[in-house]
Amino acid sequence: MLNADAWNRLTDLFHRATELPESERITFIHLHAGDDPELQRELLALIVADTDATRLRAPLRQAVKAVVQARDAEVASGTRFGPWAVERLIGSGGMGRVYLARRADGAYEREVALKLVHTPALDERRHGRFEYECRLLAQMQHPAIAQIHDAGVDADGHAWLVMEYIHGQPLSAWCDQDASSLRQRVKLLARAAEGVQHAHQKGVIHRDLKPGNILVATVDGQPLPKIIDFGIAIETEEAADAVGGGTPGYMSPEQAAPGGDIDARSDVYSLGALLYELACGVRPEPGSGIPPSGCLRALPDGRQREAAELRRTTPRRLLRELRDGLDAIALKALQAEPAARYDSVSSLLDDLRRWLAHYPPRAAGTARLLAMRSFVRRNRLMVAAAALVAAALVSGLAITAWSLREARQEAARAKVTSEFLASVLDSVDPAISQDMDKTLMLRVLDDASRRAARELAAYPDIQADMELLIGINQNSLAEFGPAVAHLQAVRELAGRHPGLLEFQYLRATQVLGDALVGAGKQREAGTVLAEGIERARRGKPEYLWLAYDMQSRLAMVLIGMGRPAEALRDAREAEKGLARLLPADNQNRLDAEKRLANVLSSTGGQVQAIALLRDLVQRRTAAMGADHPLTLVTRSDLAVAYLYQRDFPAAEVQLQEVVSAYRRLYGDDNSYTASVRGLLASALRQQGKVEESGPHYRAAMEWSSAHSGPEALDTLITRHNHANWLLESGHAEASEQEQRALLEIADRTLSRNHPVTAEILRGLAEAELALGEVGAAHGHAEAALRAMRAVHGDDSDDPLRSVRETLAKVEAAGKKASGGSRQAPP
């Protein structure tokens, strides 16, 4: 292990080597480190960690390969780590190797980065420490942090970690390739710093922040930074002599010192080094005290022009931007003594945001000239207007009056917006809101809907936003009729203003599909969503995610319409499309994964569905908590998958907990509570707990009838389930009458070849069989089988199993009644 002096030499050599072109680095390394093999190996390893090894030139790549081979042999393609299978090596550094991997159990498609940590085999104590730190990492749920999916220890005791695979470039490389302006670079760094702040709140310090550990990918046309490679502090045999990790040029002085006291301010230093490099294109010289503007001025003229062009400006303007606050921020973050730095990433972020908003950062003190320049930048319109007024006094140019009139119009528009929103929010008076819950929200929305068309008619974009907001909230509150009306109003408004309100039109269409399903209008929902998908695909590239999202929703509609093959195709295609466009923790993407699991559950793919839903429950619980609505909905979907798989005890465990949470959060008069009670009733009845299941069946049926109407799909399903319960509780005649009434509605609203109609036919056959009406029962059982075959095909064992069992019972009863000869159907 290198001592402190050797480490300082290594730091200096690394800094100098990485400033050289790749073609010159090998000669430099042999010349300056050839006398010390250990130093030479460590220097090469650092360069590996700092550079994408797949893009190195041949000589350096060969040297890198030698170092890597000296560490350990590459894992073969196909090697399993838990449910993950390695595909190929994608990177290697001082902490370990990183491989591209996929799920090997077929549960779902996902590319991940699988990291094998360089460490001796873990004993029991270090194994426990590893698991503890992995749990800490898994708790980090932030758009700027690559998600941790899994972790484990192989048969030899070596640790592995599965992370989100980011299709991106290192931060500085992405900025240079995109020629990002200085402001764009600072915005990206600020977003990454928000992720670091989130990690610190979870008790995790990164220890190795550098461009290669902040990857930037483009999502919906916007750059999104993702932090990777949070360190796992596994002890090694050399731990007592080790320095605090990190990469020279970016790590804090205390990290370079053996036994240094490392805390969140070490990451502040690294962020300061990143800011410095993003600002002027050069890494900071430790302890020099030279600001980024001073470093830029010291460069040759050609390098200055190159740095400025990469930031879409001139050297003179770039220097001025650096002096206007960024110099002070960078130097404050890079102080050698931790106590002299920003005390937290939050304080650093505050100054970055102040600079972005054209306010002087607190690190700059009370510099009057900087404050004045910042004031001018914050108030460009006002200052420009004052200058125009002065010019008008001299020259009388008409353009001044026109500019001021435009400014007044824009101010009036903003005033209307703020007054409208303020008046709506003012109606939520604490005295009114006490104990009113949903009633209060509906009252606010009703008032807003009456006023929007009247008060916002002159501003169609604002009116569309308000109508859309009202419709979304009404749909969330299960007020489907009013929601449909407002969402249709948005679409009609967009039609009167072509091109202006396209996003609002598509968003309204997306939610309208759900509202129509809630109102029991499945076919209309399918038509609306299909039209929205086609329109989004023809539109701007940034609308493509909406097309896939609506396709995912359409898959659920198709299941309800009895078209499982189309539903499965659309659900898979939508999930894959959103996986390409959205980050792994995006809620629209997670919802699409959940819908795919739901479709799999109802089409015979319960094993895959359960694996996917378990993963979603774990991720949503970690991100939002056990009682978050999205977590609870995902748990109820997992229970449905168990029901389809006939694992009724497992379903009951999930559903009892979810029902308890819903009752605690929303009470009994709520759609979530009622629907999950219906599921719980089925899990109980299938285990022979008939009496216990009755109240849950009745509650689900009564709520659906009252809120969705007598012919809605949900009402048909809950009434059918209750009719099945009547039969099993000894009320066969009442069950038969209810199933006949439901069959008349289903034939009229759904068609005969629909899975719900088929289940009603099967239930009717069971009731008739119990009453001794074997001939009628046989006819209805065969009709149920024909309907299920029309929906699923004859080879789908799972969906047809119950119907075949009923038919077999009826046929056995018929043979018994006829003395062994088969009774003909009526």
UniProtKB/TrEMBL annotation:
Organism source for this protein? Stenotrophomonas nitritireducens
Q: What is this protein called?
A: Protein kinase domain-containing protein
What are the protein's UniProt keywords? ATP-binding, Kinase, Membrane, Nucleotide-binding, Transferase, Transmembrane, Transmembrane helix
The cross-references to CDD domains, in alphabetical order and at most eight, read: STKc_PknB_like
Q: What InterPro entries does its record include?
A: Kinase-like_dom_sf (IPR011009), Prot_kinase_dom (IPR000719), Protein_kinase_ATP_BS (IPR017441), Ser/Thr_kinase_AS (IPR008271), TPR-like_helical_dom_sf (IPR011990)
Sequence intervals crossing the membrane: 381-404
Q: Which residues form the Protein kinase domain?
A: 84-356
What residues bind ATP, as annotated?
A: 115
| High-level lineage | Bacteria, Pseudomonadati, Pseudomonadota, Gammaproteobacteria, Lysobacterales
